Amino acid sequence: MTRKIIHIDMDAFYASVEQLDFPELRGKPIAVGGNKERGVVAAASYEARKYGVHSAMPSKIAASKCKDLIFVKARFDRYTEISRSIREIFLSHTDLVEPLSLDEAYLDVTQNKQGIETATDIAISIKKQIKEELGLTASAGVSVNKFLAKIASDYRKPDGLYIIKPHQVERFIEQLPIKKFFGVGKVTAEKMHKMGIFHGRDLKEKSLQTLTNYFGKAGKYYYEVSRGIDNRSVNPNRIRKSIGAENTFSESLATHDELKEKMYPIIEKVWERYQKAKAKAHTQTLKVKYDDFTQITRSKTTDNIIKDKIAFEQAIDALIDQVELEQKVRLIGCSLSNFELEEETEKTKQEQQLTLRF
Fold first, then answer.
1. DSSP per residue, 323-349
2. CA 11 to CA 9: how far, in whole Å?
3. Is residue 68 annotated as involved in ligand binding?
4. CB-based contact 78:19 (threshold 8 Å)
5. 68-72: long-range contacts (C-beta < 8 A, 24 or more apart)?
6. Which residues lie below 8 Å from residue 186, measured CB to CB, with a gap of 6+?
7. Structural domains of the chain, with CATH
8. Residue 132's pLDDT is what?
9. In the chain, which stretches have pLDDT less than 70?
10. Which reaction does it catalyse (predicted)?
11. How far out from the chain centre does Cα 257 lie?
């Protein structure tokens, strides 16, 4: 059976929520996160994007690109609240929902709860519900697998809808610029360009052996998606890879003691999230970003599950002691990862299959 996969991506989500809640910000270039002097942009409104402002950009650079840029403090509790409402809309159509973040998710609607015949009509319905119930816009991509649905959702942003039907897959991929391939970053794209790979048709001409030689395990992925093959299922029980938090400071930190002092509230936040998630981690990681925006990480992995907050604090303190401070630090963070998965019995699997609603 040909699968029907939808990828929903909210449009400039954090910025759009701010403009929704504060009408005076509507139609204006805004950046969520940071300020004119320090920090990093978490999201930019479409009005700001016209000036070249985008997420992950240092705030100072963003301010230089747009002199009228308005910086807004992030409100993640509010974004999470709205994300839950969006998730409920998804779940009214299918239980096969795989969240990727607060603002995007995959849906498998091959069979759906409301008996809507086409995936396109389901996507239209979801977009309409989000607009009417929440006052926000979303873009949707519809196709036969996750790879194509993800690309399609970005094709006509904002408030877009793009469908790649089964008979269109081959031609669509052949004409697609390699930099538009999901999973091909800037460095990989440059490497492919040197190999004469500029579009999907060029990638398709390369053998599996050649791609594996150049790109390792990723070579098989490139080989398959260039032929429209992506058998990954939509996983409603997607496992979180890490739990972390970080902070950018208005004044840079110069000593190890300062780093440790500022790290304690971050550790508290991470530990609270860790307990709520009921996760079982083995790896503790420290993140440090210097004033010149270079970044380092230091990690410690243990054989035993991390159960004690004091031990976690001590491990992060020890990692901080390893950090060289030839220049000041603008950001620090920490995380817990390398989670231990509980064994799932065959009985549990069968129970899940029996209770799954389509």
1. ---SS-EEEEEEEEEEEPPPPPPHHHH
2. 6
3. no
4. no
5. 68/28, 68/29, 69/29, 69/30, 69/31, 69/36, 70/25, 70/28, 70/29, 70/30, 70/31, 71/30, 71/31, 71/33, 71/34, 71/35, 71/36, 72/15, 72/18, 72/25, 72/30, 72/31, 72/32, 72/33
6. 179
7. 5-12+77-167 (3.30.70.270), 14-75 (3.40.1170.60), 168-225 (1.10.150.20), 242-339 (3.30.1490.100)
8. 96
9. 1, 238-240, 341-358
10. DNA(n) + a 2'-deoxyribonucleoside 5'-triphosphate = DNA(n+1) + diphosphate
11. 33
C-alpha to C-alpha distance for 253 and 308, rounded to whole angstroms: 27
What string of DSSP letters covers 275-294?
Answer: HHHT--EEEEEEEEEETTS-
Model pLDDT, residue 128: 97
Q: Identify the pLDDT of residue 34.
A: 81
pLDDT value of position 341: 59
10 Å Cβ neighbour count for 248? 18
Tell me, what's the pLDDT at 67? 95
Q: Is 11 annotated as ligand-binding?
A: no
At 179 the pLDDT is 93
Active-site residue (options: 18, 47, 104, 313): 104
- Residue 170 annotated to the active site: no
What is the pTM for the complete model shown?
A: 0.73
CA 108/CA 259 separation, integer angstroms = 45
pLDDT at residue 1 in the model: 65
